[in-house]
TrEMBL record:
Origin species: Shimwellia blattae (strain ATCC 29907 / DSM 4481 / JCM 1650 / NBRC 105725 / CDC 9005-74) (Escherichia blattae)
UniProt keyword annotation of Kinase present: no
GO MF annotations, alphabetized: siderophore uptake transmembrane transporter activity; signaling receptor activity
Name by which UniProt lists this protein: Putative tonB-dependent receptor YbiL
Every TonB-dependent receptor plug domain range: 69-169
Source taxonomy: Bacteria, Pseudomonadati, Pseudomonadota, Gammaproteobacteria, Enterobacterales
Length: 762
């Protein structure tokens, strides 16, 4: 057994099997890893060891994951800062393109449009399972990565890790912190559609144990493929650290980001595969062809403003060499207000000029508005420790969390805009601004959580791990409406109350407990590889993941607070291999997630919890260095997502789960040709997807799969300056990036664009 563990080329059968699974990611027959060498020259022993891979981080930055990524019994992808830089990625959504099957595939409900990082993972909305340094990040905004060290994507239930969360995974952004060295990195970029962006990352050591760091960002651009769509944002992130490289450390961080954008209400799906005119009256649309993908159907009054402020204090103290206590306090606020114009292209929404000339036809606009304020205050204490009892090693992470989340949605008077021409839209329309009317919605959730994780080293080869978390939550929600209106959701005025008066419509509270847990086992086959199994239970309360605003009590609603928590059960079996001086990590996993207690509509208009969903499949990935100069990150997933019980099927009538590509592939590879020249390239494939079901007729029930290729050239002029050129969508592929529930609207993929960046280092 000893010989088996220490031989770097042992277990050839297992390695050959895994190589076959991952073919296309790692051509092992052509790659030669840089191995450690020992040269004994006289009395001097020289040990040469390869540097760690910048593409393959070894460890999660979250202390709840105390084991290395290679020994974590979960599917986990860590996207490091170097990958983000090489790809020229600027947002979280861009960075997540490195994870197969994860993306912004859903464009929103009917007349409403998704904004910000609307991320789907394994068939479920994960937008409310985005964390920053392990703390929930609220708000429907697009997150910039200028202050991000790495992005950690965990697939499968994360309830035992973070409390309530999406049943299929979570995303954790790790913030940059001060270091003991002194240096400066700056970037200046320009690109298609007159993109202008600059960043600064300055780190200054004050003395041996104290340092400050400052990250700045500014960007202004137009959407290269869309008329009138603009984006402007800036950010500042100062931080200060005391006690670095000592047993007691204190970190102070602040983040301020402001965005001013023109939101995108998407374009009609007319002419896409699967489209047919909604009625005989509009049959001419069948031969009219697609609209121009650059069309903008909004108004000159459309805007989206968002401001995020976050203050964090983290204290760390090493009680012993193997025990560390951490305490984190954070206050964060996101304010967002917007006017976003979309449209409905159903038969009743289309007006004709000349019945024989579709160029004169118009469709109704829908004005979406939002004026909201999200706040979070939390204090988290964590203790990690390694020790042994009776010959069994323990790696423990335990802690308590207190969190208060509040949200206010300010009621605003409804807005309207005239119909818009289908094929020749004009935005030369001015509407009133947001005018608060007092019909607000207010929610507050207080949560107390306690958790314990332990990895037991039973033998040299066998590890057992488990974790349990208990959360107690209390939610309070109230909302008001203007009475006397008409249409869906209208509220009648009580006797003696004048029309358009503000009346309380909901005033409810709820409390409960959520128990989440996980258990796993890992066996080291060799020094390089292991096999593992994991089982996890995760729950989230009624009202959806963002249950701060459960919208009613025990009445007729899909968000009733007296419903049982949604429950997800996941089983995962996998293997992980570290090759080439442990600089390349290969993984393969089989998974199945069963979700129950889904809320479904009954025939009589009431709601019940009989829905069940299942997502199952497998995933392969490769990350790190194949050779000293050849880096790679990529993966492939096959996921069968289906509704096992319930009427909420896909629009095509099948049991398929919408917004879930069955096949998804991503690969990015970079090669250092010379000391000065580097070449990079990548490809992404997203398979066809089904959309949700509603009363829309004639709209596409699916999207087609697509391939997108990217490329990069980097050149180092000297030790202080290098240049890089990134080209995105190299072959100018036309594709549907996301589609809305009714199928009336879709967001076209970005056309071919370029980005030139000058990187400065001191």
């Amino acid at each position: 057994m000893e010989k088996h563990r220490n031989s770097p080329f042992s277990s050839r059968g297992s390695l050959t099997f895994f190589t076959g699974l991952c073919i296309g990611f790692t051509p092992l027959t052509q790659a030669r890893g840089a191995s450690d060498t020992e040269n004994n020259t006289g009395d001097t022993l020289i040990v040469e060891s390869a540097l760690p891979s910048l593409y393959g981080p070894k460890q999660s930055a979250d202390p709840k994951f105390s084991r290395p990524v290679a020994d974590t019994t979960r599917t986990m992808t860590v996207i490091p800062e170097q990958v983000i830089k090489d790809q020229g990625a600027t947002t979280l959504t861009d960075a997540l393109k490195n994870v197969p099957g994860v993306g912004a595939f859903y464009a929103g409900e009917n007349g409403n449009t998704s904004t910000g990082d609307a991320i789907y993972m394994r068939g479920m909305d994960t937008s409310n399972s985005i964390y920053v340094d392990g703390i929930r990040d609220t708000g429907t905004v697009s997150r910039d990565v200028f202050n991000t060290e790495q992005v950690e994507v965990i697939k499968g239930p994360s309830g035992s890790d973070y409390g309530r969360s999406a049943p299929t995974g979570s995303i954790n952004m790790i913030s940059k912190q001060p270091r003991t060295d002194t240096g400066l990195d700056a970037t200046v970029s320009t690109g298609s559609a007159w993109l202008r962006r600059a960043t600064l990352d300055a780190n200054q050591a004050i003395n041996d144990t104290t340092a400050w760091r400052l990250n700045l960002m500014g960007e202004k651009t137009h959407d290269a493929g869309r008329d009138n769509i603009t984006s402007e944002r800036y950010g500042v992130a100062p931080s200060l650290a005391f006690g670095l490289d000592t047993p007691t450390r204190l970190y102070l961080n602040y983040l301020h980001v402001h965005q001013h954008n023109t939101p995108d209400g998407n374009i009609p799906t007319i002419g896409l595969p699967g489209y047919s005119a909604p009625s005989a009256r509009t049959a001419a649309l069948n031969s009219a062809g697609k609209v121009n993908t650059s069309n903008f159907y909004g108004t000159d009054s459309d805007y989206d403003n968002a401001t995020t402020d976050t203050a964090t204090m983290r204290f760390e103290h090493n009680l012993t060499a193997s025990t560390t206590l951490r305490n984190t306090t954070r206050w964060s606020r996101t304010k967002q207000d917007y006017i976003l114009t979309s449209f409905m292209a159903g038969d009743s929404n289309i007006t004709m000029g000349d019945p024989n000339d579709v160029g004169s036809w118009k469709m109704a606009r829908t004005m979406n508005t939002r004026d909201a304020n999200n706040r979070i205050l939390t204090n988290q204490t964590n203790l990690t420790s390694t020790f042994s009892t009776w010959g069994i090693g323990h790696d423990i992470s335990t802690g308590v969390e207190f969190t208060r989340e509040t949200q206010t949605n300010y009621g605003v008077n409804p807005l309207s805009a005239p119909p818009v021409n289908i094929y020749a839209p004009s935005s030369k329309v001015k509407t009133a601004g947001l005018d608060r009317n007092g019909a607000n919605a207010n929610g507050r959730t207080d949560t107390f959580g306690i958790y314990l994780f332990d990895t037991l080293q039973m033998t040299r080869d066998l590890e057992l791990n488990g974790g349990i978390r208990l959360d107690h939550y209390r939610t309070r929600y109230d909302s008001s409406s203007l009475c006397g209106g008409s249409g869906r959701g209208a509220v009648a005025c009580p006797d003696g109350v004048a029309k358009n008066s503000v009346v309380k419509t909901v005033d409810t509270s709820d409390s409960g407990n959520l128990l989440n847990w996980k258990a796993g086992a890992l066996y080291h086959l060799t020094r390089e590889g292991n096999v593992y199994i994991n089982y996890a239970i995760s729950q989230q309360p009624p009202g959806g993941n963002n249950f701060t605003l459960a919208q009613s009590g025990s009445g007729n609603s899909a968000n009733r607070t007296d419903f049982r928590p949604q429950r997800a059960r996941t089983t995962e079996i996998g293997t992980k291999w570290q090759l080439f001086d442990q600089r390349l990590l290969l993984t393969a996993a089989l998974f199945r997630t069963d979700i129950e207690n889904e809320v479904e509509a009954n025939d009589d208009g009431t709601w019940s919890q009989y829905g069940k969903k299942r997502v199952e499949g497998y995933e392969l990935s490769a990350q790190g260095n194949i050779t000293r100069n050849w880096q790679v990150i990529g993966g492939y997933t096959l996921q069968h997502a289906s509704i096992k019980n319930g009427a909420n099927t896909a629009q095509d009538g099948s049991s398929g789960l919408p917004y879930t590509p069955e096949h998804a592939f991503t690969l990015w590879s970079q090669y250092q040709v010379t000391d000065a020249l580097s070449l990079g390239g990548g490809a992404r494939y997203v398979g066809g997807m089904k959309r949700g079901t509603d009363g829309a007729t004639g709209t596409p029930s699916f999207t087609e799969g697509y391939w997108v290729g990217d490329a990069k050239v980097g050149y180092r002029l000297n030790r202080n300056l290098d240049l890089q050129l990134n080209v995105y969508n190299l072959f100018d592929t036309h594709y549907v990036a996301s589609i809305n529930k009714s199928g009336y609207r879709y967001k076209p993929g970005e056309p071919r664009t370029f980005l030139v960046t000058a990187n400065v280092h001191f």
